[in-house]
Amino acid sequence: MHASAARAVVFAAVTDAASPTLAALRVRITRVLPAQVRAAIDSVTDEQLWWRPNEKSNSIGNLVLHLSGSLNHYLNRNIGGTTYERDRDAEFSQRGPMDRATLIGIFDEMVANAEKTFDKLTPERLAGPSSEPERYSYLVEDLVNITTHLADHTGQIVWIAKMLHEGALDEIWIRAHKRQGAWKR
Question: Is 171 contained in some domain?
Fold first, then answer.
């Protein structure tokens, strides 16, 4: 087999894997993890949204603002091309009370923009250059990092909500994966 034919076979294999990879990242970033965040927000009072165990810890509200800012910056701006000016310090300095609807609106706007960003992505683009070349080589690495970051903080949000209300979010991980299309039906 000639080198060009071998490259074509490898490219086809990578492209075949890229489509389900892109779909899996999309469903987790835009549906599964946001559903868990929304369920946690819905399970606590307005006061509990801003509760923190100590001054160096973050509240659910701060984590929701942080996820919104981070994904708007790294996903929607850097990859999707939307206009966004981030104020990371403000994500953590907010102490509430912020209206629940405003907080959820900020989060939902980020998720809607993430859907638009994913609409622009193709499987072939995953092997393209990273939007953060000082950190990563490929765009797929950006998306894996974004997903991991979202999952880490979603876990913190869910844990805080569970700590504040025993049994409030039992089986949320399983329900979110089933209902939001992350698992085969």
Answer: yes
